[in-house]
Design brief:
The protein is α+β, with helices and mostly antiparallel strands. It has 16 helices and 32 strands. The protein has a seven-stranded parallel β-sheet, sandwiched between helices. Strands 28-27-30-25-2-32 form a six-stranded mixed β-sheet, with no helix packed on it. Strands 1-24-31-26-29 form a five-stranded mixed β-sheet. Helix 8 crosses helix 13 and helix 10 runs parallel beside helix 11. The longest helix has 19 residues.
């Protein structure tokens, strides 16, 4: 069986486009007492105005924030409803709390206008179609803003470490106005250290503060405060096991041209490799005004970098007398012993802004010390997601380590404990999160597991990172790293599995850039290659065919050869593209006729695996409604009459709404060859303009699982439809059909 064959590429010529029409025409309620409803809403508007004027602080031109509740069953996210109630009424949605509840803001003058308008809205059919469905309006209460983990803090006398999420109801981009608020906060809380602030991607401001717990409710009562949360700190674990020998005279393999290797930016506490190995560090990046490493320790970063650059077999390379690098790295030494989320947001955003043109893979091997929560994506996880979306890069992070192995005697008990869930920033939906396995492929006892936020597919991948015994016993399995003193040593943890994934991802990205992406016309090729690389790593992972999704080891471990190439009996198609709202795209792929020769009743002989990864923008403050959009999928085979037949997995398995990964695999015993189809449709939040595009990558594998090693690849290749060398990106003008559908 021949391997190492190039994947096939689906061009625009094998797609077909139509346009979906979504309609929602709001109508007034029938037999509804709108006069009584008008009186109630009017009183509620005046209560909102009164509450917004009670403040400890002076903020010029601040908008009024309040809560608006629609009738049960009415969806804020329906575009027609959204435009009528919010956009047309001059209301800005600041956060969505549920299907029918939102936090909104407006100028005080507009709120007063709405209060007057409400008094006689019943005279207009158009106005009734709006306000009949608004159940109530109320101030946004302090209790709703304070995270439940802080609920008991108010009764204590201690200071508490918090992040205050401030709404964009005034111009905090104006440094003078921002400083005015910070000065007032400092006056109110004189024991407060310097307040760290960071502008977030969802038009909010994070302020890291330490305040008396007794002041929590008072601060939450402020109109400009959207949420008060506990602060996350990020640590990188490194444990000295032993020293196996000095590498002071270590040499690099002379056959490798380091400058031609892919690049990984390692955001850590510095890198100090022994001997000539430091030449694999391209350079040391400094933040503006940063004169030296923030910690200067290079304790964690050196170990991480040695694993990323040289892989697993460091001891073997040392004995051979030469180390062979897989990648080169940029040293980004911005980490200290404990790092707050707010501080890291500013620093990492600057790092990516400065480096994204020369580096598409970033490794951040740090985690919060506690699991993520289901209330919202973590602050840092959301901001890394926004950088992936904005700059077209990949972020690799560990899932994190827990210490539950010290309390249990079985892995089933460890995994069932909620404390074993992934920790920030690995909960970011666009981030490539990496867990740890032992050399035998078992989940490491310390490795955090999924699923992720909103039951998203987490972890992404797993790589060897060592293993430790249960029940606090001695011993364990360790991986080889170099330390800052120039010795070969051993360690364990997800900090040392994730570097292997980062190196592979950089290698795959470079491959995609030089193969698939170079055929793209009028596209950002680095962005295209980055997203294709991530999708390929997932689609070709060792557990990608396992259904349902494995929330312990995700898509499994990646083998570079399998990722980069198809086989005679296992052919993969790839397509990168963008979609707009209402654009429905059908993608065609060939199931070759040669497979019909191995069909046998009741015995599966064909496997089709589908992975669609999309890269939307997101708003953390929206909680459960985090993503701004997603690509829905529908899978169709060919029946005996040559017509398309829907073959989606039952119960939307692997095809959940509002997730950025759709993945499923199906085995077939009865099937027809020919052009099978995958239909894609982009659904977006009503706040997203119709012309905005979402990036997506489609991967489809067709595999002979009969054991006959049927050469299906050659038949596909002979059609000359999907061969990379003949791929031409054209603006395919498919025929547009209008289709009436109910809006989601």
């Amino acid at each position: 069986m021949k391997k190492n064959k190039p994947h096939f590429q689906i061009s625009d010529q094998d797609t077909f486009e139509r346009r979906a029409k979504h309609r929602l025409i709001p109508k007034p309620k029938e037999n509804f007492n709108y006069e009584e409803h008008s009186d109630n809403l009017g009183r509620e508007f005046h209560a909102v105005i009164a509450s917004s004027n009670k403040s400890m602080f002076t903020i010029p031109n601040a908008e009024t924030i309040f809560k608006l509740q629609l009738d049960e069953g009415e969806k804020i996210e329906q575009r027609g409803r959204y435009e009528a109630i919010f956009t047309d009424q001059g209301l800005t949605v600041r956060a969505i709390l549920g299907e029918s509840e939102a936090i909104v803001s407006s100028t005080e003058s507009n709120v007063r206008r709405l209060a007057r308008q409400i008094n006689d809205y019943g005279k207009s059919e158009r106005e009734r179609a709006v306000w009949d469905y608004v159940q109530n309006i109320s101030p946004f209460s302090p209790a709703e803003k304070i995270d439940t983990s802080l609920a008991n803090a108010a009764s204590s006398s201690k200071n508490i470490d918090i992040n205050v999420i401030i709404a964009g109801v005034w111009d905090f981009h104006n440094q003078e106005q921002l400083q005015m608020l910070l000065d007032q906060l400092k006056d109110k809380f004189p024991e407060q250290p310097e307040i760290e602030t960071a502008e977030l991607s969802d038009d909010t401001l994070s302020a890291h503060m330490i305040i008396p717990s007794s002041a929590l409710a008072e601060l939450a009562n402020e109109n400009f405060v959207l949420a008060i949360e506990p602060n996350d700190y990020f640590v990188g674990e490194a444990t000295l096991v032993d020293k196996a020998g000095s590498l002071a005279n270590a040499k690099l393999n002379d056959d490798i041209d380091i400058e031609k290797l892919p690049t990984v930016a390692i955001i850590d506490d510095g890198i100090k490799l022994p001997g000539d190995l430091q030449a694999a560090v391209k350079y040391v990046y400094r933040l503006p005004n940063q004169l030296e490493e923030i910690s200067g320790e290079a304790n964690h970063g050196t170990r991480v970098a040695s694993r990323c650059i040289f892989g697993e077999d460091l001891e073997k390379q040392a004995k051979l007398g030469a180390f062979t690098p897989k990648v080169q790295v940029i040293d980004v030494p911005i980490m200290s012993e404990r790092n707050s989320a707010t501080d890291l947001v500013k620093k990492i955003r600057q790092v990516v802004k400065d480096l994204h043109d020369e580096c598409a893979t970033f490794l951040f091997a740090y985690n919060a010390e506690v699991p993520f929560t289901q209330k919202s994506v973590s602050l840092l996880g959301a901001e890394l997601d926004s950088l992936i979306y904005e700059y077209g890069v990949n972020f690799v992070t560990p899932t994190g380590n827990h210490k539950l192995r010290n309390r249990y005697q079985s892995m089933s008990d460890v995994i069932s404990d909620s404390g074993a869930r992934i920790s920030a920033p690995a909960d970011g939906l666009l981030i490539t999160s990496v867990g740890s396995i032992s050399q035998s492929g078992d989940l490491s006892t310390f490795s955090r597991v999924g699923t992720g936020f909103n039951e998203s597919m987490k972890p992404g991948l797993v790589y060897p990172g060592g293993n430790l015994p249960l029940n606090n016993e001695n011993g364990g399995e360790f991986v080889q790293v170099t330390d800052r003193e120039g010795f070969l040593t051993r360690d364990s943890g997800t900090s040392f599995s994730s570097p292997l994934a980062a190196a592979d991802l950089a290698i795959v990205q470079a491959y995609c850039l030089n193969t698939f992406a170079k055929a793209q016309l009028y596209k950002d090729r680095n962005r295209t290659a980055s997203f294709e690389a991530k999708a390929l790593m997932y689609h070709r992972g060792s557990e990608a065919d396992t259904m349902p999704f494995n929330s312990q080891i995700g898509f499994g471990e990646t083998n570079i050869e399998r990722v980069l190439s198809s086989d005679n009996d296992n052919a993969t198609y790839i397509r990168y593209g963008t979609l707009k709202r209402k654009q429905v795209l059908t993608v065609k792929f060939l199931v070759p006729k040669v497979l019909e020769s191995i069909r046998k009743r009741g015995v599966a002989s064909l496997r089709v695996a589908v992975t669609v990864v999309d890269f939307p923008s997101a708003r953390r403050i929206n909680g459960k409604d985090y993503l701004d959009g997603y690509v829905d999928t529908s899978f169709h085979s060919v029946n005996s009459k040559g017509n398309a037949q829907t073959r989606n997995p039952s119960a939307k398995q692997g095809r959940q709404k509002w997730t950025n990964i759709h993945h499923f695999s199906e085995d077939f015993n009865a099937y027809q060859s020919g052009d099978w189809e995958l239909t894609l449709e982009y659904y977006s939040r009503p706040s997203i303009p119709d012309d905005d595009e979402i990036d997506y990558v489609v991967l489809i594998s067709v595999e002979d699982i009969s054991g006959n090693n049927v050469d299906l690849y050659s038949e596909i290749e002979a059609t000359n439809r999907f061969n990379i060398e003949n791929f031409i990106a054209v603006n395919h003008e498919g025929k547009l059909y209008e289709e009436d559908e109910n809006d989601e």
